[in-house]
## 1
Amino acid sequence: MDVSAIINPLNDAQRLAVSAPQQAILVLAGAGSGKTRVLVHRIAWQMRINHIPPQNILAVTFTNKAAREMRGRIEDLLNISTRSMWIGTFHGLAHRLLRQHAKQARLPETFQVMDSDDQSRIVKRLVKTMNIDDSKWPPKQLQWYINAQKEEGVRARHISDHGDPYQRQMLAVYKAYEELCERSGLVDFAELLLRAHELLRDNRELLDFYRERFRQVHVDEFQDTNSIQYAWLRLLTDGNNNLFVVGDDDQSIYGWRGAKIENIFNFRQHYPDHQVVRLERNYRSTGHILKAANTLIAHNDSRMGKELWTEAGEGEPISLYTAFNEQDEAYFVVEKIRQWIKDGGLRSDIAILYRSNAQSRQFEERLMTTAVPYRVYGGLRFFDRLEIKNALAYLRLASNPHDDASFERIVNTPTRGIGAKTLDEMRGQARQQQRSLWQTAQGMLEQRLLSPRAAGALQGFLNLIVRLGQNCADMALHDLIQQVIESSGLLEFYKNEKQDRNEARVENLEELVNAARLFDFDSLSQEDGETVSELDIFLTHAALEAGESQAEPEQDCVQLMTLHSAKGLEFKLVFMVGMEDGLFPSLQSLDDIGRLQEERRLCYVGITRAMQQLFLTHAESRRLYGKDSYPRPSRFLREIPADTLQEIRMRASITRTPGMEPTRQTALSGGGRYRPGQSVGHEKFGEGVVLQTEGEGDQERVQINFRHAGIKWLMLAYAKLEMLG
DNA sequence: GGTAAACACCTTTTT
DNA sequence: GGTGTTTACC
């Protein structure tokens, strides 16, 4: 293969980035500008032109999906195997390093990765056993605190409480948490990154080895890196200038979970010889959509600066619909969807995007009643399901009995007579003696500290785990799992409980056996013939990649998801719904300029998902948390230029005050509609105040409290009402 | 030890 | 209003 195959499919800016000399490169890639393409072609360039062998290439992404896609595209482009290339998520690669150098990382060989659910259980338990007032120190907050510290690279021993009792308590929990994880051989997500950083930092030889090895480092979605991830990258590339990062400061929407948009700015100081390449040509959207996005995002300050353009032409204007309430909003959206389908469009080209998951409901209902197939993204993924986590906990305990998180989870699941009292006793002792629950349980049995009934139950449980542990080595994994769900009583338990959701649980457990049978160990095993068992590989996979949320995604259906999960995707027809202050931007962001700017970036992400048509909708009244609210239209709507927008009139006759043309401004501020509190006049009943409204179109009715005539319901279409005040 | 009533809460989410 | 969690009671 020659250079042309790598270079020809690229535009000038992309070419500049791909063929840039060996130095630190920052590619500012706008939405839809061919970001992944540049990354893939850069790697191809390095291999073909600079003759860098695959094992010297590192590529880091944030999601497993992105990593898979990149691997696939490199293989397609170069027609080679990428097995020896390190392509993965920050967490996945960190995990790989830690497995290979467990000893130097001061980790047990059999350490297991725990997810945030396990983590929160541990923190909750610590709060209990340490007798901490959970109203002052909510476990959630403690968990957040621990993760935030780790993401900044800070260990408990580095922190001083400055005599502040609140700090001191948080610190005490952090310390106790660290000790417990150490003792249980458990590593949380943030710990993976922190350990991997410390591993390289504290082992000069290892660091030199990997610096030598990763002659080219590539990073996707650089704007989403947090402090420890960036520190790790710097460690690997310091002095080598072999860092190629791609990102978009305007699409940084994960600040709330530690992503540091500053990294993109700091990059320029840290790598003085760097080169910046901007990808501004957009291949996705029409001119109107891009103009809206550009104008909106220009309201943010401290940007790197970037303006998307296209040769695709202006296209359809963006449509703005003011709905009466949330049902009307759903009704409108689904009508437009049906029209699209009737015109021969694909359902899978349509996305409904919302700020928060709770908003999906009314759209689901409407889609359901009109029999339009849809798929909601988000929610529980396969390995996150309760029954799956329970089954996995048995396996984890069998692999490592000191895993306290798993012990807690299943010691009495299904119930086998080991109650809260016995457990409290065990927790207290375990903490006192700095031993695992497993050891404590054994000790208590030996010393006959328990009632005969509890002792019998506990002994039975321990025996079960030991038996499973013995089978780990010489049983095929799927047989082992089959044995687990049977002999633990889990399968029996879910089969007997006659609830509809349990049927699915039984199915999921069977699916777990199947997943183990089909699991491809070869693709995930360590390159240097590590001693990691199949079981441990499978368990890590379950923690690091929780799997899809729904089984059969490849159907032609409408896509429903949050704006966050829409990042990186594109759809011909996009609805951004609930464009109201307090919803989007969210209530919590309204009074904080930094958060508001992140919301604006989120809006930018949403707009730029649309290829052909974009609908923005907001409702004048919305039931929120059981109460009626009358939100103002989102401030973002005012930041979109009017000449890209087209207002869609409401379906039925709306009584408007004579002479008041419904301009964009009045529609945006909700003028023209009757809402509670509005003073009205009626030729027969006189003056009154609107109490509530219901129905839509010519069915719309208004309840009015007339000063003299009392409370009456009036049909808007017939009653000649006049707005006052 | 299991169930039901009371209660608080209420973005966004990947690893 | 709906959900997940704690508490009270059988």
## 2
Amino acid sequence: MAIERYNAPEREKHWQSVWESRDVFRTVTDPSRPKCYVLEMFPYPSGRIHMGHVRNYTMGDVLARTKRAQGFNVLHPMGWDAFGMPAENAAMERKTHPKAWTYENIAAMKSQLKSMGLSLDWSREVATCDPSYYVHQQRLFLDMFARGLAYRRKAKVNWDPVDQTVLANEQVIDGRGWRSGALVEQREREQWAFKISAYSDDLLEALGTLDKWPEKVRLMQENWIGRSDGLMMRWKLADGTAPAGHDELEIFTTRPDTLFGASFMAIAPDHPLAKAVAAQNAALAEFSDECRRAGTSAAEMEKAEKKGFDTGIRAVHPFDPSWQVPVYVANFVLMDYGTGAIFGCPAHDQRDIEFAKKYGLPIIPVVAPKDEPARGKTVARIHEGAAYLDDGVMINSHFLDGLSPKAAFDEVARRLAKERIGNEPVATRKVNYRLRDWGLSRQRYWGCPIPVVHCDACGIVPVAAKDLPVVLPDDATFDQPGNPLDRHPTWRHVSCPKCAAPASRETDTMDTFVDSSWYFARFTAPDAVTPTDQAALDYWMPVDQYIGGIEHAILHLLYSRFFYRAMGDTGHAGLRNLREPFAALFTQGMVVHETYRRADVEPPQWLLPTEVSFEGEGDARRGTEIATGKPAIIGSIEKMSKSRKNLVDPDDIIAHYGADCARWFMLSDSPPERDVIWTESGVSGAGRFIQRVWRIVDDVVGGRVAKGTPQPATVGPEALEVRRIAHRVLDQVGRNIEGLRFNVAVAQLYELSNALSGALGKSGDGLDWVVREGAELLIQMLGPMMPHLGEECWARLGYNTLLVEQPWPKADPALLVDDTVVIAVQVNGKRRDELTIGRTASKDEVEAAALQLATVVRALEGRPPKKVIVVPQRIVNVVV
RNA sequence: GCGGACGUGGUGAAACGGUAGACACACAGGACUUAAAAUCCUGAGACGGCAACGUCGUGCGGGUUCAAGUCCCGCCGUCCGCACCA
């Protein structure tokens, strides 16, 4: 009799309401239990969830549910990264309010997430745009301000002309704003910054402790922080060549060992010395202006030719008063790194050698390979214009000759530390970092207000704690560009908290990355009256597994590492004062899909997957636009995006196949760190598997042994084999889930269900009992991945408990080892045969058995083997 | 330019240095059916052979090892990050 198909969409709603009504996912802070904090990067409420969210949140949910079954007290919260530009753009375009738009989106997306059946504790939900969240952020900010970790500075900033706001260095990608895509301009502005540079060394060093982070992310952060060890070195300027008041020039170098290869100095156009000369030299002033103009766009800067202007100043070599080198103003020297001045050693720096060739400066090799003829070749190549960067031995360098560059570095540092200009040493060791302070001011409305007041008399005055939060005014207008807070008629006009004189509220708001830099801490005690609750933090932190996209490798993940340190130093990170918020990080791949577009149209007109029909397969596969009947081009597989229209709506999939099907497909096949190609056939395959599980369970409950039947006395060999598979899979699936190898876990569950399907058609000693046992294990293991199907099957198997509340089953160790093993037999490393033998057989027994095999005898041709390698329970290799 | 990752059937992929291709998708053949859908069974890395079986096979070229997809060296290709950082 045909059984009824499992109606996923209908049953999923049922089980979701059961979970909700029993409040099974509420988490209580309970230090007596082992904890596990599973977190996925919270979404920006753009309006609807997309497949990337489905993948991300499915992975976290599987882990959270598994850990919960394994007895951990699991924290698995969700919230909204709710401030940001799109809300203001929507307000401008649609005449709505950012707040209304955001909260509507949150409601819609929350309902979508609920339809996925995620095991989230919604009682801990936070939205960063809610005053109940950002009041605490304002407190954190003021504490950081009091400690000098947040400060105001005048600086060159990245100005996004489209979003009309300042961007942090991390938010400029290839010279363009990360959000708007507009070419970023450099502008001088007063703005707020976080002193992330105070933690450069700690942030770098501690990367070494993050052994559960991807190597790639650690490396990216390492490069971003960019430590370099070198020397600050002061050069005297030759008398009469430099303007008054400039009798020395300080440079930073990481290659003091190449000091005897120096042939020029170069300084930034904005260097004080350059400005002093330019004041009297129109040609240089013109040159500097040109450099600055070219410098307005980072993209142009990359391609710019290296140019210099000889100032006529001469600098005196620290070891040889008679040796003078020219000082150039150069377009490639940056004012904000080191001292804005360098010495050029052309032979050992590719950029310097290009510069030297262009301006006819000497090129003196000072490092070369130890041995001829490599040395001769290297010197020749240097003179052809190829800088030598490898290790070697010092040459042409007086007292350094023969030393290694490393020893030469130390020797130069040692000698120059003793030399004096005035009372100061000529050179001191110095560590420089590429990492800049984090500019956090944004000239936008929809962000966390910076809680300070500008008073003519008192300067910058923090808003008193009792007056927090500084709340955004609801009645702002969005009908023109610029900052709505600036033009609000009343909001900014306040009296000074200190002297009560009329004063002006800060109208910049915080970068939204501030909001996401501590939300994970707030989740541990979302109702605390202080920003964090020390006891809750001490119990829950760090996040045991954080899951999100690689695009945050630097931005969010570096900011959060900094912010948690700053919270610690202002007393907000728990009594244990952990420094690292995320113990383990996993960066999942993207969801990609084929693209479709109309034929012969430029620019491309993209079509939605639902607008195209297909026939044929492989190379012969053709697409047709359904509406017009015209051919559609099947294009490359790309990240799902609105612009390419290669989108699949999670709602459609959930409504048609169910959430479990979408979840199962996301977990199958592709390793989670790689991209997954969304295909219709893959989804329907997942759907077929759901029905198959349903049929297995149906078969088990129909006429087979009942729930709780004791194990029969005899279990035949066929049944035993099924048991072995079930317990072996059980043993491995848990480990594979913990290791986030979901695709492998899925494959093993397929293997088990194949074994059960195969056994269902047969009869044998104890087989019915074994199949029921296997089916129950299958359902328990499937539970974290397809939780609705799991509950439905669990109930059908006769249980009136909830599967989600069942402990994780344990494999029987006795079933994990077989009495006999199959050993591969190789001759000269090539597999020739196999051998079935007792598991405990000795090496000698295995060797003897192997040598009797016909294939081996044939290969030996009567001679004794040269050597026989036996790896017990694995392999025999006969060397002839 | 610098740094990193990856490269396995038609496809997505598995594989503590130890039987390469588990599992899935697609495909082919068969069963059931008036038929289709659904389901079940079977097959399949390539080449040769009716078959038993043989030869080759994890981007290319070397090396280490009894044994290499896995370790080492050198290439090629693809992708990603950084890019005047002194």
## 3
Amino acid sequence: MDIPSKYNPKETEEKWYKFWEENGFFHAEVNSEKKPYTIVIPPPNITGILHMGHALNNTIQDIYIRFKRMQGYETLWMPGTDHAGIATQNVVEKKLRAEGKDKESMGREKFLDEVWKWKEDYGSTIITQLKNLGCSCDWPRTRFTMDDGLSEAVREVFVKLYEKGLIYRGNYIINWCPRCKTALSDEEAQHRDVDGVLYYIKYPIVTKDEGRRTKDDKDHVVVATTRPETMLGDVAVCVNPRDKRYKHLKESSVILPVLNRELKVIFDSKVDPKFGTGVLKVTPAHDPVDFELGVTHGLEPVNIMNDDATINEAGDRFKGMDRFEAREAIIDELKERDLFVKSEPHRHAVGHCYRCHTMVEPRLSKQWFVKMKPLSKPALQAVKKGRIKFYPKRWTKVYINWMENIRDWCISRQIWWGHRIPVYYCKACIQKSQIPNPKSQINSKSQIPKEEGTVVSKVKPEKCPACGSTELEQDNDVLDTWFSSWLWPFSTMGWPEKTKELDYFYPTDVLVTAQEIIFFWVARMIMAGMEFMNDIPFRDVYIHGTVRDDTGTKMSKSLGNIIDPIDVINQFGSDALRFSIISITAQGQDVFLSPQKFEIGRNFANKLWNASRFVLMNLKEDMVKRDLCQTASDPALSLADRWILSRFYQMLDIFSKNLASYRINDAANKIYEFIWHEFCDWYLEMAKLTIEEAHTQITIYKVLEKSLRVLHPIMPFITEDIWQRLPKEHGDKSIMASSWPHAQKAFISKKIDADMQLVIQIIQAIRNLRATWRIEYNKDVDVFIKAGKKGVVSSIEKCSTYVKKLARVSNISISDTVKKPSHAALAVIEDIEIFIPLEGVIDLEKEKKRLSDKLDGLLSELKAAEAKLKNKNFVSKAPEEVVKKARERKESISTEVVSLRKNLKLL
RNA sequence: GGGCGGUUGGCGCAGUUGGUUAGCGCGUUUGCUUGACAUGCAAAAGGUCAUAGGUUCGACUCCUAUACCGCCCACCA
């Protein structure tokens, strides 16, 4: 049988991937004969390129898909990408800017054409890369969140939720990214600790009743703020009603410095007297707490910022300045007017845009929201009742905690790329209607009144249902990308149509994802599944760790600490990447990567390749086409044969159990251990003795062939390549279409394991003696074994050929009563004694001399070490570490002396 | 402020319900080009499992506290 001496991953991977894809092995169809097994891919975004997180995530999914496929399930792995509204728009805008164009002058239609064109050109990079990784996705079913079908699902959901009163439009404080110029959801604003400054500013007091002022009262209050520029929008100052320090302010108002506006003093328990000075400036348009205060105290918000966070006309002479510029300018002015008290460093968490990392601005604006509380209830129940299980379990608590404190979801985005909100406004009706005063509606239980002149519809209505006007305009905003992703498990299968796919493949079996995405996606998918499918979207959620570099920092493009999976694939091969990353990722733990970690997989692939080469070089085709079960009863089977079969079936059992409990690294390491340290290190070496014989031929073939099948989900390419070179006793065209090995408990024998264990221990003991006594590696020795009480004479005798071969022994004498030969080396295993007579094997005199020379050297070293430690100056003055080391050194010398003396005695 | 994770030989990590000798990879030392493999083989050195208590016949494993590192969530301006 023909096999190259070097494994070439690149060539192999291309060849077999093409073979699998062309032969339709990835494709799943509704099949009533088989049970379905479904995974939906967490859709990567079209601007993305494959990173290590993807590599880990998709390797895990591919392992399960291949495993279940071999177990006879109809496996669907649904692939796709998401349109990543903000990210993609940013990328295309940047590209256009480089070409001297901008989206405003192009207009919406033309700009969107450009984005679609960009998507055609670059949007499938990641798909190609997933193929390089070996992913066996059902590519003909590939979906995109802006496909017609999925867009239809989005509109359907919007209308349904609106009609149920779960979608509303309102004026609230939202997170605003001044760079992307759009609203963000709470999840999209990522809190990061920032070294800020807390500024203390005087607000002069205007007292209506001068007579009530005492002499001690100051003529101002001091307000502490981290964002002085927002004072342009102040409408009040607020203190805690129980704060005695500020009782005198009851009838007063204060003057807003800089703008000289008169501000009310209000009292509210929301203010923490312990923070700053206990006086809060109230800026309803630019802070969520202040907004709430504004609502309860009936204050009209003053919006001071444009959409790019520059100051608008409400900021008077600061108009046009950037928010940070304005901050400086205001502080300067306050200092000039002696209204500035002090500033102190203040570390606090500030939201940042998750797409461009710009500091987000809390901003009052009119947006669309989803009311989440009603949706969260069934989703919470599904997890609490155990219908959906998290692995590792601890994420359950994180999920429940978030769900129980869920807040309304801001879903409108002021960008163009995405699903345009299916809402139409009738110009005539809107003019007639009054926009209601903002009330604190977030999480409120009351029904939200629908605005007049607003038509929510999947298709553009011909005319306004109220007044009949045809002047209808669609909302300019688009929906949050996650508003389409949360429907993914069913929208990809044709929902809202009742398709046979949905019926068969839904709910899916497992969702594999990273922790960052639990709130963005997992939680919302569960809510959507319960609401629209009336069923859970998946049964298991496996949360794997985050991929970090070897210093523990999260890998990210901006930090430049990326290890590109494609580089690793080019250098070591996809199998090596897959095996390595799986093997070092313990369940749910973060994984720290460095380039050399991928050598694990490369070396393993090399080992497997060479072992297979050895087998193929020695295999006789006509001898292996036999049934293993028939062979099992063959008395000719040797101890080694029986042992490796016993070990294989134990490994198989543990491997499957580990996969079932999402302990994938354990599974990977189990097969690694088996192939390398049992099959190669021991079985192949022993099999060399009887390689011509039928029992060895069949065993070696079966164990290799089955091991390849077990390893295939993790290392699909190399296993396919070797498998194809094996003699064909099976009709399968591909290993990926072959069946998973059946568990055969009958082959597992603890007795066989123990017998072999003894043989291995004896061989290791003899090798150890050979090394310590410096016996030339190719010199055969005689061995005397005194068997202990356990009566192992016959069992050792039976396998003495193994000992002879693997430990280079010419003669073995075993009995219960062997006497210690003179000048013999001794090893002990429990009550078994092993002797090697050294006369004639090594030069005894020379060895004696070598050892006593060494002993002399050690003794003088010991003397010196002892003297050093007796030196009081050294012990008291030298650093503790040094003294400790000296002590340890002394200890190790004395133990060496003891063993050397013992060995000398033997000579 | 709340929650979670980690602390195991020089380095990076496993250790599933508490049970004989705590494993793996890298690195180190020694020997080996042995007809599958030097991306390898053989042998070896190296750990009081962060600290202090507790439960138990028995604790790396369970409980309590402490320390350090890291992550997530959060409207103290």
